Amino acid sequence: MSGLAKSPARRDPPFLVAGLIAVAVAYLALVVFLPLVIVFVEALRKGVGDYLAGIGDAEALSAIKLTLLVAAIAVPLNTIFGLAAAWCVTKFDFKGKNLLVTLIDLPFSISPVISGLIYVLLYGANGWFGPWLQEHNIQIIFSVTGIVLATTLVTLPFVARELIPLMQAQGSDEEAAATTLGANGLRTFFLITLPNVKWALMYGVLLSTARAMGEFGAVSVVSGKIRGLTATMPLQVEILYNEYNFVAAFAVASLLALFALVTLAVKTLLEARFSDELAAQRWR
Amino acid sequence: MSLEITGITKSYGRFPALDDVSLLAEDGEFLALLGPSGSGKTTLLRVIAGLEIADGGAIHFSGEDLLATPVRQRRIGFVFQHYALFKHMTVTQNIAFGMKSKHRRERPSKAAISAKVEELLSLVQLDGLGGRYPSQLSGGQRQRVALARALAIEPKILLLDEPFGALDAKVRRGLRRWLRELHERTGLTTIFVTHDQEEALELADRVALLKDGKVEQIGTPEELYHDPASAFVFDFLGDSFQFPCEVKDGKALIAGQEVPILGSSPHVDGPATAYVRPDGFVVGAPDGPGFQARIRDVLLAGTDARLDCVLDDDGSIEVRVPHAIAEKLAPRNRISLAPREVRVWG
Fold this sequence. Notes:
CATH superfamily of the largest domain in chain B: P-loop containing nucleotide triphosphate hydrolases
Distance between the termini of chain B: 41 Å
Number of helices of chain A: 15
Oligomer: heterodimer
Shape of chain A: globular
Structural class of chain B: alpha+beta
CATH class of the largest domain in chain A: Mainly Alpha
Number of helices of chain B: 9
Helix content of chain B: 25-40%
Number of domains of chain A: 2
Strand content of chain A: under 5%
CATH superfamily of the largest domain in chain A: MetI-like
CATH architecture of the largest domain in chain A: Orthogonal Bundle
CATH topology of the largest domain in chain A: MetI-like fold
Helix content of chain A: over 70%
């Protein structure tokens, strides 16, 4: 790169270089960095004491626990589904394959609020399965079950979407080789397929974790926002904000932002740690 | 321990990839499946290995029904065109994979596995490279790792899909000779797929030439080269030129000249097409027998010299002649080109 930059033929005018960099930095600062800073500034406006009080509040703690619980259920579910779907789509040919791929993408394209509404229409008191569920004393809407379902739906595409293009590019020669060498399906999967897609898988899992914790639209429809019971962190932030309790709202929000930052940091660290292996993986 | 393929058919949608293919590979034979792309040769190889499922037909290996055997129990060594090495494993781990995949009762001990890996590494001349990853190897080395990995399961048959397809010409020639030696040492029934006629003729005991999913001809390289069953076979095994001719009394009439016809197949009198190889011409003085031509270029590099000629009757051909003749010629010279002998097909 530096060699190219030094070549006079390739040197751009300095004002252009500076201008482009300035535009990019200003844009990032305005759209990403500043809002992120504001979250922490607002949270700490009245001191660390109030900040900790905001987080340590019983309702906030319950929201944090609920958020982690929902992510802990939805993410593994979608990891398994994503792996199975990607395997099925990339290693086999069948009719309706394109339809399946489109269906997997659907949660990306429909508004999360609609995803939530669908569950209310299906499982709510007046929904299709409502009477049957009531008879059997099962509550889905306005309960943790509903929140998990809505979150699972919204985060469904992440893992599959990361895996499908990669597995398509890799083809199934290595799996075929393993089979001719006598390996059974499980061995092939764990020793050949999984190591080949582990980075994409990790990336998909991280993205879906971040999204699962931050999901607002779908969850807000199905949860009923019962404080201390069915309020996840994003819902808790909204409740607090609407009550003009800004410090507490931003405190919870900062924690949510922190989760996201940690997720990204983990990804970057892992990439740096295994950069050699990543480079080796790129060879085909 | 012969491999008997009978009436294999396979189609992808409406496209027939294999159409009633029957073949017999003798024990220890080195058989080449030769053909242009889309002729079904790779499909046939994958059907034998069990990576594709045939629509009909049977494959027997020393009496045993191969198609009824699960892929991973067939003990068929398969070497993929692009090697399909496990990139996250070292060379040693790659080679040991098959042995470690065996059922616990049949699995060799750790010491036995590493001894076998060492033995195979030296067989494929990669001693000391066991710790490398595939990305740290050259194309030829990767190919040999793939071969060692396939040999590690002590296969009953070895299948190679375009084994040298991705390598450059020089490495390819070296590996070709080496593979021939390896086959002599292991005595393993080996089938390999190639689209390179030179490779097939040089390596194989017998060659099966495929066209549009059918076996066009099967025989020793000599049989195919000297007694081609069809125009397609003749044309595929080397460059050739075609001229309209008239067959009469067992001779071909080309450019006013009677030329002897090669080959054992009978010929009906009447119009036909004559096929000549680039080295099948006699160069004569202008207005001599045969085609009248003007030399466009004389190419003196190579085993044979080549003359790039423009025919008076339209068209251009590049003929091969001994250097001694070519050295006396120059561009823009006029010459006559008389076919020495021809093959004729309707």
